[in-house]
Design goal:
Length: 219
């Protein structure tokens, strides 16, 4: 047991002082989508690893939450869009409970964005357009992987990919079980790391008929 205790002590002592930037009400946008766009563009320009990666949190019918990392594929005033297998665990959980949360963590910039709201499927036309823009092996992969299901080994995926590759050649259609989701935000939070753990944290809440309410939260 001693090595475990030593290891735990080492982890507990890890600390970092956040001193790169600040986030205040005067310099932030009144529209959270504009604030998100600014931060996302800065993450891309800073060449942080996978600036488009986000965590998606859903809740199952037994009230157990689960998370996974996906890639954002679009955003506008309608919401945040990503694509996946509708029959996956997250797809099944969203079918039972359409509320979800997203999180972006740009470690190098000491920034976090949290987004909450209701999720809906995008149109078939949007799903078709994005699917046909993907590389061929990714399109075949959408057919080959029974996402979230138990399989006997990697050979199942390889065999499925070969089967569907031979069947569809260069023109695989979009699988009926694959497409896009869009989260329609009603709550945003922007977190900027600051010295002494006195971080900046702004919340935007959608208020009926009055637009976005911006408030500062204690960290």
């Amino acid at each position: 047991m001693l090595p475990i205790l030593v290891r735990m002590t080492s982890i507990a002592s890890l600390r970092k002082s956040y001193e790169r930037a600040e986030l205040n009400e005067d310099a932030s946008h009144s529209d959270p989508l504009q604030q998100f766009e600014q931060w996302l563009n800065e993450a891309i320009q800073s060449e942080v690893p996978e600036p488009n990666a986000m965590t998606v949190a859903t809740v199952a019918s037994n009230l157990r939450p689960s998370t996974r990392v996906v890639l954002i594929k679009g955003y506008d005033k309608r919401g945040i869009t990503w694509f996946t297998n509708y029959e996956s665990q997250k797809g099944q959980e969203l079918a039972g409970n359409p509320f979800a949360a997203l999180q972006f963590h740009w470690v190098e910039l000491e920034r976090v964005v949290r987004i909450e709201g209701v999720v809906e499927k995008v149109s078939d036309a949007e799903s078709d357009e994005y699917f046909h823009s993907r590389p061929l092996d990714s399109r075949i992969g959408a057919w080959a992987s029974p996402q979230s299901q138990v399989i006997s080994g990697r050979g199942v995926l390889v065999a499925n990919a070969a089967k569907f590759g031979a069947k569809f050649l260069l023109q695989p259609p979009r699988p009926p079980h694959w497409g896009g989701y869009r989260l329609k935000p009603d709550n945003w939070q922007f977190w900027q790391g600051r010295k002494s753990r006195l971080h900046d944290r702004l919340r935007y809440t959608l208020t009926p008929g009055a637009g976005w309410l911006r408030e500062r939260l204690a960290p």
